[in-house]
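Reminder: ligand-aware prediction takes two inputs, not one.
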Amino acid sequence: MEMELWYTENQTPALGLSLKVKETLLRCRTDFQEIAILDTVQCGRMLILDGMVQTTIADEFIYHEMIAHVPLRTHPAPRSVLVIGGGDGGVVREICRYPQVEQVTLVEIDAGVVEASRRYLPEISSALDDTRLEIIYQDGREYVCSCNDAFDVIIVDSTEPVAIAEGLFGTPFYQGVFQALKGGGILVAQTESPFYNAALLQATFQRIHAIFPQSFLYLASVPTYPSGLWSFTLGTKGSSPLEPAGDYLPPELRYYSPHIHRSSFTLPPFVQELLYQNVSPEPPAF
Ligand code: SAM
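Here is what comes back for the chain with S-adenosylmethionine:
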């Protein structure tokens, strides 16, 4: 009898997500993290970094459409866009759907992730050869401190706030992002799960809230992410996401729509309360 192989991500110390594995396509260690690509029965090929699910063929469209099209359609005319993290290329693919975007900069700390995605996740990395794209292999926290008044939209598509990504959730980083944004500029950062990362979500939202004139939280359902309910925090120097100023809507999107855009900002009471009430344990101080 053939032995079954399963991969389990421990999403909390007491809860895991298990997927039946057809084949291990890659497993290696770079200077920054362990990279694995598994082919799973339920979700197809998936990218795992340091044991945490980053993206799967089955549901990547949800996360990548929601982290990209909400800010790109809130801004009236995005021309220059910065992605921090995002080495799998999914966010870049969505940005490149906009003909009016002239320049995309991807700042990814680990070239190994880009190479793995190019080789094993071509559906996700398909726009990494777009002529508008520049890939810079650097710590995003250092990079933003070298920019001033440079980008219309900045998207932080980072791993969980541990190890190399820890600094991408702190006040100094968001202050750097604020400076790197042009007038009217918009930041979106993935800010984890309202169920399992309540303290971090609140702390991150409040850090962005303290820096930007307007800040908002929005939600989407990503089945393979911890709890399946995922949050994004938007800070804007200009347009409100509740009145999107952009008039271009890319064709053939599968999760994002103008109605989903608007409804994603309607928060259930437990999340609304989370943004402004104290939660314990105290969030880690970055
Ligand atoms: N969508 C995923 C999520 O929400 O967890 C993130 C996917 S993307 C692969 C995350 C990327 O962030 C990784 O490739 C990782 O190398 C990169 N990253 C982590 N810390 C970074 C830093 N300080 N600067 C630049 N990139 C970083």
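Helices lie at 60-74, 90-95, 111-120, 140-144, 171-180, 198-211, 258-263, 269-276. The CA atoms of residues 216 and 281 lie 23 Å apart. We will return to this case in the review session.
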